[in-house]
Backbone:
């Protein structure tokens, strides 16, 4: 892998694998609204622009037992029928709360599919918190051996 050490030049820090092959990067988005997907697409465009091979994956499709689709339907339903309840949901999901522990453990079931999506990649980036949790589980269990980055989008719209 080629690493450049002059960030002030606006050149990419990572450009190629050893041997000159393009870096392979997996981007894990979450189709819970358009912001996470838009960020993933823009990252892919920028990375492809510097010669990287990029694959985009949706955490909705990587969660087992259709859990991703169930969570997305529940999220859309909540925003449509009870939008003011979103703040309460975020409070219930704060670290240390029982719902936070349940969701965090549940996202561990996505560790293997996320690791498979990033197989032979040089880097994996996620734009959604569910992807970040799944990547954390994959790293903690030794299923993911490449660097992982979480790119958070603007939380103020939530």
Residues:
């Amino acid at each position: 892998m080629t690493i450049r050490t002059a960030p002030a030049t606006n050149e990419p820090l990572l450009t190629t694998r050893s041997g000159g092959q393009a870096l392979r990067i997996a981007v894990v988005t979450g189709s819970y609204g358009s912001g996470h997907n838009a960020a993933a697409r823009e990252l892919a465009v920028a990375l492809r622009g510097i010669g990287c091979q990029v694959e985009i994956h949706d955490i909705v499709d990587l969660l087992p037992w259709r859990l991703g689709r169930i969570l997305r339907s529940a999220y859309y339903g909540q925003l449509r029928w009870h939008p003011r309840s979103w703040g309460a949901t975020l409070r219930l999901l704060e670290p240390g709360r029982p719902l936070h522990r349940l969701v965090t453990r549940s996202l561990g079931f996505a560790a293997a599919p996320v690791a498979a999506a990033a197989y032979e990649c040089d880097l994996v980036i996620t734009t959604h918190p569910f992807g970040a949790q799944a990547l954390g589980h994959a790293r903690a269990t030794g299923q993911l051996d490449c660097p992982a980055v979480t790119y958070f989008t603007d939380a103020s719209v939530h």
Observations:
- Residues 1-6 have pLDDT under 50 and may be disordered.
- The first strand starts at residue 24 and ends at 29.
